[in-house]
Automatic annotation (TrEMBL):
PANTHER family in UniProt: CHAD DOMAIN-CONTAINING PROTEIN (PTHR39339:SF1), SLR1444 PROTEIN (PTHR39339)
Domain CYTH intervals: 5-200
Organism in which the protein naturally occurs: Streptomyces osmaniensis
Domain of life, source organism: Bacteria
Domain CHAD: 210-498
A family per Pfam: CHAD
Protein's UniProt name: CYTH and CHAD domain-containing protein
Length: 500
């Protein structure tokens, strides 16, 4: 079973490779010599180094106190999440799954071997509590694939102990800098090894800024593709909000294909959009129930105990399918499926050779506003239709459709922000507010539908349906409040941004 820990560390280099006296660091009572460890690590990647390009490291290491397989994902500068698995000859299945969105059907090869002599010191406080581990690593790097280069260097590494305020690292760094030690130019040993052992070749030039309408649309699509790939491991680990975030990325991309059909040929993007819709649907199976469960549970907590009749909480929990932590096997099966991996390949191919139409080469100031205004026009028609309808199922449907078009307009405006600036940014903000208002109404519709179903089940079991009816009535009131607010809110939206 793999374990995950948050790693917060900083790396340094110095001309004399020595470690200055750290007993003067505020809070450090003593520096404890822990001896020298001999580490031997083999790093794995695809032949085109997809993991390294995403600052992900996968290694099998022997020696030291944590021998085994280590997979590290970047979180922020100097911060990584490390997933550890016991030492074995082959890559554990769980770690293989966490890199599948990048590796896919490719082959993982040994790319670099790092052998290090690690001289370890522990910085402890007056109570003997570990504050940080400091090591001086003498590193020898050997490239195993894509060349036969070697390199060697010495670096100082400071890793924060669990539960210690990261500000402590600033105090250590201040002392190191005073002694002439400087931060390393490389983010990791692997990054430095790959750079120093690679065959000499021309470095790629900087990426060009978006210029045309097509550039801006593709830049937005690329961000969503990257989000799906990067969120894959988080979804597998059931990280908070990861399923929702991946689902939003699929919706953003699919919506972009629809909104900018004059830029990207929909004959090509529509089939991809269908696959994105499938993925969003699969991601939503568990997510929608989770959100609705939270709403119903919160509403039930507001009901006085004297008005709760029967095992209502148990019924809601059973309906939601409460389960222990960890992504469902069904969802992991989706992420391991050929269909999902083929979708990722399709997105890569689409970005590598985009189906650009004639207007893709035009200036964004002319093409993008027109597409956004067209989407907004659809929102306008649906909202005004909903306002005119009597309360009931027809109005519910109109509001739901307006919400979907509102999200589409918001995403189109998001894609246009880098080119159009404040007017597009203002529209994004307005559409988000409208989306939230209409979303509250739709959540009420779905909650009432679920309450009817639960009431029927309770009635069949000869239980009181009173509390379900009470909750249903409260949801009706919440929906009515949205419907009452909508006309005035919409009057404020119309003509409220320069883009429209």
């Amino acid at each position: 079973m793999a374990d995950t820990k948050r790693e917060i560390e900083r790396k340094y280099e110095s001309d004399d490779s020595g470690l200055p006296d750290l007993t003067g660091v505020a809070g450090v009572a003593s520096v404890v010599d822990k001896g020298v460890a001999h580490l031997d690590a083999t790093y794995y990647d695809t032949p085109d180094e997809r993991l390294a390009s995403a600052s992900i490291t996968l290694r099998r290491r022997t020696g030291g106190s944590d021998a085994g397989w280590h997979l590290k994902f970047p979180v922020a500068k100097g911060v990584r999440d490390e997933v550890q698995a016991p030492l074995s000859d082959d890559l554990p299945d769980e770690l293989a799954g966490l890199v599948r969105s990048r590796v896919r059907h490719g082959e993982l090869l040994p790319v670099v071997r790092l052998r290090s002599d690690r001289d370890v010191r522990h910085l402890v406080d007056a109570d003997g509590r570990l504050l940080a581990e400091v090591s001086v690593d003498a590193v020898h790097a050997q490239r195993l694939a894509g060349g036969d280069g070697v390199a060697q260097w010495t670096e100082i590494e400071v890793e924060l102990a669990d539960g210690v305020d990261p500000v402590f690292l600033d105090k250590v760094e201040k002392r190191l800098r005073k002694a002439g030690v400087r931060p390393s130019k490389s983010a990791s040993k692997l990054a430095r090894a790959l750079a120093e052992t690679a065959p000499k070749k021309l470095a790629p030039g900087p990426a060009a800024d978006p210029v045309t309408a097509g550039d801006h649309v593709l830049a937005y699509v690329r961000v969503q593709r990257d989000a799906i790939v990067e969120l894959d491991p988080a979804v597998r680990q059931d990280a908070e909000d990861s399923v929702h975030s991946m689902r939003v990325a699929t919706r953003r991309m699919r919506s972009t294909f629809k909104s900018f059909g004059k830029v990207l040929d929909r004959a090509v993007t529509d089939p991809t959009g269908d696959e994105l819709k499938w993925l969003a649907g699969e991601l939503g199976v568990d997510r929608d129930r989770e959100v609705l469960n939270e709403r119903l549970s919160a509403a039930l907590e507001e009901v006085p105990h004297t008005l709760v009749s029967g095992p209502v909480a148990e019924r809601v929990s059973h309906w939601a399918g409460d389960r222990p932590g960890g992504a469902s096997s069904r969802l992991i099966g989706i992420l391991d499926s050929r269909r999902y991996l083929a979708l990722l390949d399709t997105l890569d191919a689409l970005l590598a050779d985009p189906p650009l139409r004639k207007k893709a080469g035009k200036k964004p100031g002319k093409v993008l506003p027109k597409a956004v205004k067209k989407d907004f026009g659809k929102v306008s028609a649906l909202v005004e239709q909903a306002v005119e309808l009597d309360p009931g199922s027809d109005r519910d449907v109109a509001i739901h459709e307006a919400r979907k078009k509102t999200k589409r307009t918001r995403y189109a405006a998001e894609a246009a922000v880098p080119a159009l600036g404040k007017p597009a940014k203002d529209l994004v903000k307005t559409m988000k507010s409208l989306q939230n208002l209409l979303g509250e109404h739709q959540d009420s519709v779905m909650a009432r539908q679920t309450l009817r179903e639960l009431s029927a089940v309770a009635h069949a079991a000869e239980e009181s349906a009173f509390t379900y009816g009470l909750l249903y009535g409260r949801e009706e009131q919440r929906a009515a409040a949205v419907e009452a607010e909508l006309p005035g809110f919409w009057d404020g939206v119309k003509g409220g941004t320069d883009l429209l």
